[in-house]
TrEMBL record:
PANTHER family reported in the protein's UniProt record: HTH-TYPE TRANSCRIPTIONAL REGULATOR, HTH-TYPE TRANSCRIPTIONAL REGULATOR TRPI
Name of the protein described by the UniProt record: LysR family transcriptional regulator
Alphabetic keyword roster: DNA-binding, Transcription, Transcription regulation
HTH lysR-type domain residues: 5-62
Length: 298
């Protein structure tokens, strides 16, 4: 394959051809006229065509040179465009965020469009976790219970209130939901025992046990029973009317959500921007939950 002309030679050719002058091209490119003349002679040898008529004090562009000029300009434009694209890609940052699985499902995922707008120059990877287990390499952490060990700038993101929730359509089938409707449990029945005692209700049926709170909430949204929810995970569903609160009791959660970061991210503007976005979204969550409807226990 024949060796292709260098971008330098093509740029000199375009300048010389458009000016019909090696001296003019040299001045435009801040090089010597001898350098332009040498590059043009080398280019003609490589292409095996004559690009210029050379007079004693002037040059002119040959028909072959006129035909080659738009080709050379297109090549230079493509090179510049490709460089711009490559530079834009190389300048993008990436960030990995480990997030409690349930928080990722109910809080982060429905807001990805707003996060992408906030971090428009950053590629974000979310990795779901469960309490007590962590991703080896992550830049930021949103954890439930405690801040991740070994992280810096640990900040309490929020606590929450806990209460039963159900589909409003399911509640239309009974006037006494906490006594008559199926109870949906996660692996820990602590909250159900606490709520039933608070409402002076005695039930001996265990109900359906699902693997975690998120599955129980999803089942409640599907009309399968009453689940234990909270004003973080259920805020959007409460606002939309997919869920309503059941009973008159709301208890404070036993743990909090925390956000922290890897020591290498300390002072990083991307980490700061993510924290700002996250805190604003969580504040809006509580407004949504507080405006939701209660279904009294009877």
């Amino acid at each position: 394959m024949q060796a292709l002309p260098s971008p330098t030679a093509l740029r000199m050719f375009v300048e010389a051809a458009e000016r019909s002058s090696f001296a003019g091209a040299a001045e435009a490119l801040n090089v010597t006229q001898a350098a332009v003349s040498k590059q043009m002679a080398s280019l003609e040898d490589r292409l095996n065509i004559s690009l210029f008529f050379r007079g004693h004090r002037s040059v002119g562009v040959t028909p072959a040179g006129q035909a080659y000029l738009p080709v050379a300009k297109r090549v230079l434009a493509l090179l510049e465009s490709g460089l711009d694209d490559a530079t834009a890609l190389s300048s993008r940052r990436s960030i990995t965020i480990e997030v409690d699985y349930e928080f990722l499902d109910f809080v982060v995922t429905p807001r990805l469009d707003r996060l992408c707008a906030q971090l428009s120059e950053t590629d974000v990877t979310f990795l779901p976790t469960v309490p007590g287990r962590h991703v080896p390499q992550s830049d930021l952490s949103i954890t439930y219970g405690h801040p991740r060990p070994g992280r810096v700038s640990a900040e309490r993101l929020c606590g929450f209130r806990v209460f039963p929730v159900a589909s409003p359509f399911l509640l239309e089938t009974t006037s006494d939901p906490l006594k008559e409707l199926p109870l949906l449990h996660d692996v820990d029945s602590y909250w159900w025992n606490t709520f039933l005692q608070a409402e002076n209700i005695t039930r001996f049926d265990q109900g359906t046990v699902l693997g975690n709170g998120a599955l129980a909430i999803r089942a409640a949204m599907a009309g399968q029973g009453i689940a234990i929810g909270d004003d973080v995970l259920c805020a959007d569903a409460l606002r939309r009317g997919d869920l309503v609160r059941v009973g008159g009791t709301a208890l404070h959660g036993r743990d909090d959500y925390w956000v922290s970061e890897h020591p290498d991210m300390l002072g990083d503007p991307i980490a700061a921007s993510f924290r700002k976005w996250l805190k604003a979204e969580v504040a809006q969550l509580f407004e949504n939950a507080q405006s939701a409807t209660w279904k009294p226990a009877t």
